[in-house]
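note to self — DONT lose this again. spent like an hour looking for the file last time. sequence + predicted structure for the chain T wanted, 269 res
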Amino acid sequence: MAAKIYTITSGKGGTGKSTFAVNLAAALAGLAKKTLLIDADIGMANIGLMLGLENSKITLHEVLADEANVADALYDGPNGLKVLPCGISLQGFKKADLSRLKDIIAEVSPNFEFIIIDTSTGINHATATSIEVCDEVLLVLTPEITSIADGSKMRAFSILLGKEVTGMVLNRTMPVHDEIYREKLVGALDLKIFEVLPEDVSIPNSIAGKSPVVTKYPYSEISIAMNRLAALLCGIKMPEPEEGKGQKKQKNEKKRIAGAKLSFSQSKK
């Protein structure tokens, strides 16, 4: 049975698209689903950096250049996730042949239940290729007018390629982006909001620690939302957290996040 393939895209940078892709894939794997995460942003790859795989010798670059087998470019990630990272060298970008992505997907698809593809932002050949090989497109937006406008263009672009955008994820939200705001957004884009993810300090802390937030801070608000979305895609109903116990764990998680120090922060003298 072939995997269900989701391409994660956005109209502009800064939406948290790659971070979202990493955490959605890790959440799916945490639900015991055989999941593969592919970094198809061949020019500005970040997933290897985010998961501590930046020194991998064989990556999607080499596979696309027909210099290596895809099996040799698969690495172990959190929760049993498999990761196909992309290299970060310009030479690797130059020799990569994106037309081979379809065949690579066809080769690995029977071995997984879900494949999450992180692609580049905006309208370009790399994004088009990633959209063409997927079953469904998930659009990551932030509540800014530029992100929303560009997201609308990305939806139209997907339709031109014969793929519908299944829904959107509203990321990096603040309390002001309430239900009334979201209803207006749904009306403007005519797209369902799958999940609303808050601006959360646990994200930069988890990136600095080269771990998904769903594994590093599992009781944070954003992790709970990511797991809820993964369950939705799997057709699983997540159990409601026990009142009191869940709140206590969330409170402790907030304290732990607040006390965490970014690896690149400078000490005060």
